[in-house]
């Protein structure tokens, strides 16, 4: 019975009478339907969220109506007015796919229109957080934790995951993750996450305009209301980050980035752009005993770079032919990654820079 909505995209939901009726007048039966639908088709969660926002704002703009069919008609009357379309255009015409897409595309572009301002940063991330929580409460009983103290606050989630919530931050999550295919939490502020592994239930953090998706890993998110960027830093494992409002892409995760240990991404909230680099102090991924094995005496520099890649999980790019005669004696147990890179580059007459979380070595070679 879910196949009807399985392939829906934003424009389809916005004009669907059943969906509009659920947004306007939710019932236990409708809530159960859409909750189970999202468990079966989790990739539709972002589209559902955006469609709910669109319907709410368009209904508010078009005024009170008596039923979903009238709501759908008035929604498209509102779109028609916003597009300065002729009044004679019929409702049935707007339900044609190509016209519907054009209308919604134009609607999304109308960031200056008052009723669509909810999609812009003129609304604070606090209101984004509150909107997400209100929608989440429809599908599950929620728990909220607020930290107004000067000390980090430890929070244990229902699945055993640990969250360290920083000052002036808020976290919301379902009281139970049982019966769901996803573990979803909502953050405004800053927090460190150590996620319990559960391959069958991906873990999603919604932080204002960004979604961070993991299975089991540790990472930090910084997403304060007043800051222009959202920062996600990975300590272990892999995480996927993508914009919550990523147009009409059926699978928004494909438009994001995959982060590995010691990488971080800055997300420009206004421009909806990603910038990936390494964290300020990359940490060794091996223990002290394992690090002691990486000691080199008159070794090819290529072997040393290979070891650095294993120890820190970074990719080092260099011209093997140019540096083929370069040899060094060193170990990897003392200095940090960047300190070690400086020592190595000084020893072989080279330089390094960071490009999209990669270390790029440039040099003229050794005699």
UniProtKB/TrEMBL annotation:
Residues 149-239 form the FecR protein domain. Gene3D superfamilies: 2.60.120.1440, 3.55.50.30. Keywords: Membrane, Transmembrane, Transmembrane helix. The chain crosses the membrane at residues 98-118. GO terms for molecular function: sigma factor antagonist activity. It comes from the Bacteria. It holds the Pfam family FecR_C. Residues 294-360 form the Protein FecR C-terminal domain. This is FecR family protein. It comes from Arundinibacter roseus.
């Amino acid at each position: 019975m879910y196949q009807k909505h399985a392939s829906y995209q934003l424009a389809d939901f916005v004009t669907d009478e059943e969906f509009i009726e659920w947004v306007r007048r939710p019932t236990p039966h409708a809530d159960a339907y859409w909750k189970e639908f999202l468990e079966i088709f989790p990739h539709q969660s972002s589209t559902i969220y955006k469609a709910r926002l669109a319907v709410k704002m368009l209904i508010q703009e078009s005024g009170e109506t008596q039923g979903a069919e009238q709501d759908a008609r008035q929604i498209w009357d509102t779109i028609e007015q916003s597009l300065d379309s002729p009044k004679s255009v019929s409702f049935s015409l707007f339900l044609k796919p190509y016209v519907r897409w054009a209308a919604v595309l134009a609607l999304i572009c109308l960031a200056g229109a008052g009723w669509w301002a909810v999609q812009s940063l003129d609304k604070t991330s606090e209101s984004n957080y509150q909107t997400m929580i209100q929608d989440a409460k429809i599908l599950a009983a929620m728990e909220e934790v607020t930290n107004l103290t000067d000390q980090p606050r430890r929070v244990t989630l229902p699945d055993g995951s640990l969250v360290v919530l920083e000052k002036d931050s808020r976290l919301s999550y379902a009281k139970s993750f049982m019966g769901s295919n996803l573990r979803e939490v909502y953050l405004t502020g800053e927090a460190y996450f150590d996620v319990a592994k559960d391959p069958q239930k991906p873990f999603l953090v919604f932080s204002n305009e960004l979604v961070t998706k993991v299975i089991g890993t540790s990472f930090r998110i910084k997403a304060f209301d007043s800051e222009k960027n959202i920062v996600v830093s990975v300590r272990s494992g892999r995480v996927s980050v993508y914009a919550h409002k990523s147009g009409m892409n059926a699978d928004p995760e494909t438009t994001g980035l995959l982060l590995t240990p010691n990488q971080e991404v800055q997300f420009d909230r206004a421009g909806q752009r990603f910038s990936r680099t390494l964290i300020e102090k990359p940490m060794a991924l091996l223990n002290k005993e394992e690090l002691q094995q990486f000691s080199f005496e008159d070794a090819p520099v290529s072997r040393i770079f290979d070891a650095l890649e294993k120890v820190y999980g970074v990719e080092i790019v260099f011209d093997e032919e140019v540096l083929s005669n370069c040899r060094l004696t060193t170990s990897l147990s003392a200095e940090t990654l960047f300190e070690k890179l400086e020592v190595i580059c000084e020893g072989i007459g080279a330089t390094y820079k960071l490009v999209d979380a990669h270390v790029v070595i440039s040099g003229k070679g050794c005699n």
